[in-house]
Amino acid sequence: MNSTANAQPETAPPYKSWTGFYTKRALDIFGAVFTLVLTAPFLLAATLLIKLSIGSPVFFRQRRIGYKGKPFTIIKLRTMLDLYNEHGELLPDSDRLTPLGNFLRHWSLDELPQLFNVLKGDLSLVGPRPHLWIYRDRFSPEQWKRHDVFPGITGWAQINGRNSLTWTEKLKLDCWYVENRSILLDLKILLVTPWKILKREGITQPGYATVAEFQGVLQQQAVASADESIEFGSVVWVRNVGEKREKAEPAVETRQVRSIFDTMVVDVGETAERVFSGNGKTNGKNHH
User: Fold this and answer.
1) Alpha carbon of 46 to those of 52, 70, 76, 186: distances in Å?
2) How far apart are CA 241 and CA 237, in angstroms?
3) Residue pLDDT, tens place only, 60-79
4) Is the pTM of this model over 0.90?
5) pLDDT digits 0-9 by tens, 183-192
6) Would you say 232 and 254 are in contact if contact means Cβ atoms under 8 Å apart?
């Protein structure tokens, strides 16, 4: 796991003070209970429809990154079918998302069971959204700071673009929240969130049924600026931010190959220059 996970001692409050932490915790419990009572009819109706249309299980459980990088199991309403290809891999979200699931996601009703995560203490009402456990080693040290507070159901990034933002933009907003968090800011986010849900803004990332996979800082750097792709055997040098994004993973290896190749070219050039100048010695250099 990222070494920055233990940047603060375990005794440090996940807020700016213990008073602030307990105030926020009280707000979480009150808000979760109030929202569960208010939305209970919708939650019961949704679980019944899922049972009839998709089948069991009704709830979707997944391992996510929690406070200080510790894992926890998030609970959501199930919106997708478990469909696999011939290699045993899950099909894309667009092939598994059901019409009912799409409706639930559009109105954020699939998030309601996370209120039980709030009561349990895994989540807060407000905080950076908890990301998949497989992403835990893909954050830069700066981005990892988002885990210095409890993750939340809604957050600063969620009311400022949600999934319409790029990963870099979302993570910057998460880190801004960590640095500027306060009870007043949490209340503002809670008040704006229902309006954003009603407007149905940023539910999916453009071009995706849900959201693109977070590949991490190395891929972000690899695809930062260019406009073409060069293949060298099984290695791909990616220069396209858009349609060739999925080929960015080998970019580090490619840079190494290019570095070795450039060194060989320089050595050959120097050797040729010495030969033609009457000096055939290679000064003891031996490159493999």
Assistant:
1) 10, 30, 11, 28
2) 12
3) 999 999 999 999 999 999 99
4) no
5) 999 999 999 9
6) yes
